[in-house]
């Protein structure tokens, strides 16, 4: 055989007989995000086949006149086909007009490769948080080794200069790893730079961005972004005053002067800390570092920060929640003096001598009513009239003599612990009561202090809200980490009754001085008469409004007389008592026209909250019709008698069958859960204006004679539309409340989904939950078994294995998905129903282990709702027009 006919086995043009156009060289198609891994695998595969030169540019294209050109062209097309086989169809389509293999390779590189920095950052962040958890030591080591090896590949160093660059990059990565998520956008831009800028440049970029946020926006926006870890960032530095890039607004102001109304001194006591929080008084640690140039220690200092727009104080209700942290001076063992939430009559700075025990609220010259404001102290120093050095106090005209105070030791909270503490203040405009809730951040809020006062007599109708803080003999830092404030106007009463009362009052004021003989009666008896008449007018007015609303509604509940219902229940005989709740009792009765067995709920005459829930129930459930909702048949509103009439449920409520001797088979349990899910789909999506139930639990699931589920007790329900806030008060039952409701006080369809998930676990497992975040809770137990692959071990032992294993497993996984602490990962109820009805419906994806708790905050606004949100992340909530439940009814 001639020597020239022997093929060169080392030639890149050589194709093996097994090489075909359908060959795929790597596992996993290129989709874009996986480009680094795909590129490494494809490079290895092409190198193994001696074809890497076609894509890396080392193999030159031969002269078309040479004999080897044909073989080169054939092999090039074959390699191009292999690459196209290894990428997603959509990507392949976008590359089909490329004929040069090198062009394809470069195109993919330019699209998806943005340097190794982002990937290195991701790997280091994963490595810093990696823990063994439920993995074996072998699996844990393999996972870490995989990350180490990839880091080693990405950080290859071949000389001293490269080693120095790698060390500098390591400093940048460490700095970026510790940044708050509020800088996520800017962090991504820095990581996209190749090579990475030096650490000094990175610091300069981020420091300027921090200052930009403080100076580039109005005062209210400054607070919002300063304490909002998830706040939006700008991609470049652009002066908001002149619109030009290249400088910050403070520099522009130094040239053209400060805009009207902008006083640079208004923020000189504030500082933005590296963790995204706002320091109201100077940080002792920072001040100590400046002693060489500034001998003013952080003692006897005052700080105040207010929202730049006034908000409505009355007639209104408000809710505000905030998280703070108080730290002492590292050089001292003592604290002082504290901080306060304030509703001020103006936006002026704190009085000049208001440091120390005055907390920046008042000073000696303004004590005793000079200023009209409300303040809630968080006091860390014991003065003469204080219970201790760890208390809450409510101040109006005097700091020395608060209207209410209570030691936080009663709640197990220590203001001086250095921990993050969350407070929520709810003022009920109807009842004139301020409720104060408190807890360490991440734990459910508990009611700590309630105080009744009239806002109208305390502050002007419009106030400025914010915080004050002070130090005295000792220094401490006051950090505001998040803040949310919501106020909504309460509608005035019916004009008809308002005008009548106004005319009546005018006549009385004119006649009483003339009729001397009635002076004693006017002085002592008239107020009681007027109060009784006012209550009677209110009852008549509310009754007429309910009649009007229900008269126009289809299938509206009928109005009963008290006499009819008294007769039906044998004068509410104890023998007919079915149960007692928080706001009244339920009796079994038989109405005669037509003869029907009913359940009659009697609202306590002394319960104001019960009255509001009574009205809410009529106007919410009264218009709803669904086979799995407990139907409201009628109502009665006579004098102090508030009564609701429902369908009678022979088998009572579902809680009777959980953890009790009475047994429900699996088929019945599954039917109950399916019916309950269908009811929630109807409320959330199908009934017109969506309704959030807010109290889904076994006690509120009633069972008819065939054990069909009927969701009832709509006293806490709220209508939703598209534009505003639903509620600002926490309502519901601990253990069934979604985590975000415990922290923010707002209910959503997703919080109903969470409650449903708890009902699922209780019914399948046959035991009640201990409550949210309790050790050895039902949720912990089910998650633990799921992680071990033994989730069926949690099923109620009383079933004795008589159930469809696959169906039970799917049901438990649905329950766990509904209980995800992050509401954005919970399924919609429609998806739940689809899973229950169709065994082939794909399940929701669950993490391998129980996800960590996540605290979210919400904000919204509308024409009648003012909301200022300074929290970490937000999701819109809506508030219905309540056209079937006027706000005035709830007075």
UniProtKB/TrEMBL annotation:
Residues 238-252 form the CCHC-type domain. Residues 863-875 have a biased composition (Low complexity). One of its GO terms (cellular component) is plasma membrane. InterPro entries: ConA-like_dom_sf, Copia-like_N, Kinase-like_dom_sf, L-type_Lectin-RKs, Lectin_legB_Mn/Ca_BS, Legume_lectin_dom, Prot_kinase_dom, Protein_kinase_ATP_BS. It holds the Pfam family Lectin_legB. SUPFAM superfamilies: Concanavalin A-like lectins/glucanases, Protein kinase-like (PK-like). The chain crosses the membrane at residues 510-530. Residues 289-299 have a biased composition (Polar residues). Residues 278-301, 863-891 are annotated as: Disordered. ATP binds at residue 601. It is found in: Cell membrane. Keywords: ATP-binding, Cell membrane, Glycoprotein, Kinase, Lectin, Membrane, Metal-binding, Nucleotide-binding, Receptor, Serine/threonine-protein kinase, Signal, Transferase, Transmembrane, Transmembrane helix, Zinc, Zinc-finger. Its main location: membrane. Residues 572-862 form the Protein kinase domain. GO terms for molecular function: ATP binding; carbohydrate binding; nucleic acid binding; protein serine/threonine kinase activity; zinc ion binding. It is a single-pass type I membrane protein. Its EC number is 2.7.11.1. In the N-terminal section; belongs to the leguminous lectin family. In the C-terminal section; belongs to the protein kinase superfamily. Ser/Thr protein kinase family. This is non-specific serine/threonine protein kinase. It comes from Nyssa sinensis. The lineage of its organism: Eukaryota, Viridiplantae, Streptophyta, Embryophyta, Tracheophyta.
